[in-house]
Structures are given as structure tokens and as C-alpha cells.
Amino acid sequence: DADVTQTPRNRITKTGKRIMLECSQTKGHDRMYWYRQDPGLGLRLIYYSFDVKDINKGEISDGYSVSRQAQAKFSLSLESAIPNQTALYFCATSDSQRHHHGYTFGSGTRLTVV
Amino acid sequence: SQQGEEDPQALSIQEGENATMNCSYKTSINNLQWYRQNSGRGLVHLILIRSNEREKHSGRLRVTLDTSKKSSSLLITASRAADTASYFCATDDGGSQGNLIFGKGTKLSVKP
């Protein structure tokens, strides 16, 4: 099983719908992140969490919300999806005590909003 | 806002050649990391270099860091077709939280 699992892998949804992307990890890492990747723009940070119930906004949090109810799970919600939220979404984790190990990424969720 | 900026945006070489990718950044950092991404997949951590280090090696990878020029380079020696991927540099935001900020990446194509 993957260390960081994202579901679903692919999703097509309609404008205005609420959608949730799930992320779970078996690394035991305390920190979790959500990024989106757009062609030519690299990865941009949406939200991050350093512990259960800890939530922090990233660079592009508008239109998104997150929940960290357990250390292993970090979910991202789009309250009312719009077409410019079409992107590849990545969840990542890290260990605050082992910065040199870097981030561990999931395989991504490809979201299309039509 | 972007912190790291990779150069070139795309690089095409023959198998066996060396590949060099560069990264420039804007503000002070604690460390700089390089990641690899195969098409449409998650990023994989390759190597981290701290701000007080100048060079680091890992297998066929060599990373240099010049904090006075705010730049880093990633050298892949004796490249293989399997090295074809996008490579990203990431810097921490320099603050106490240490969140990573990623560049836009260099797309490397290694032709057999």
C-alpha cells in the first residue's frame, strides 16, 4: 500500500457541486499539505496542517476548505466547484522532526470541473 | 508567490550525457530540496541541501548551492531514459514554519 493515498484518482464534476478529496497516510507524519498543480505554474499551496485540528491557509485557499480530524487523514473540500479549479491536486506529508527527509506525496487527484 | 525558478524550462539530451538544471530563488532559505515528478504522478524527494552546505551527492545526483547568488544546480550524470521526468526545486519559506515553495520545474527528456 502507498504511504500517502489519495482518493479519488480522477473526478469529473459539474460547476456548483460540492466535492471532497481525501488523503490518508501511513507514515505517521504530523504535518500534511494540499497543493494544486497547473500546467506552467508549478505547485501552489492551498492549506496545511501541523497537527490534528490545526489548519492554516496557504497561498491560494479561497474556494477551498480542509479538515484534519485525525493525524492520518486530511481532506480537501471545494464548496462550490468552478471550472478554474480544474487541476491536479496533491496531498503531501512531512515529519517535523526529520526535515531532511523532505515531503512524501500522494499520486494525485485529477479534478475536472465542467 | 514563486520562490524558486528553474532553468531551463525544458531540456532534451541523449542517454549517457549529463543533465544540468538550475534553480534561482529570491529570499533567505534554511534549505533547498530537489524533487522529481514522472508524468502525472506525485513528486518524489531526491535530495536536500542545507543553507550552510555547498555541495551534496547522492548516487548520480550532484547538487550545489550558492547562497550568495541565491542559486542551486542539479546535475544528473550519465543520464538514462528512465531519468525522463520533470524536476522541481523547492525552498522553505525562510520562516519558522518551513513550508516548501516549489518552482515551475524543468522537463527533462532523455532519448535512448
Characterize this entry briefly.
The complex is a heterodimer of chains A (114) and B (112). With 114 residues, chain A is mainly beta.
Textual characterization of the structure:
The complex is a heterodimer of chains A (about 110) and B (about 110). Chain A has strands at about 5, 10-15, 20-25, 30-40, 40-50, 55, 65-70, 75-80, 85-95, 105, 110-114. Chain A is about 0% helix and about 55% strand. The model of chain A has no long low-confidence stretch (mean pLDDT about 95). With about 110 residues, chain A is mainly β. Chain B has no helices and eleven strands. In chain B, strands 2, 4, 5, 9, 10 and 11 form a six-stranded mixed β-sheet that branches. A five-stranded antiparallel β-sheet of chain B has the order 1-3-8-7-6, with no helix packed on it. Chain B is globular, with a radius of gyration of 13 Å. The termini of chain B are far apart.
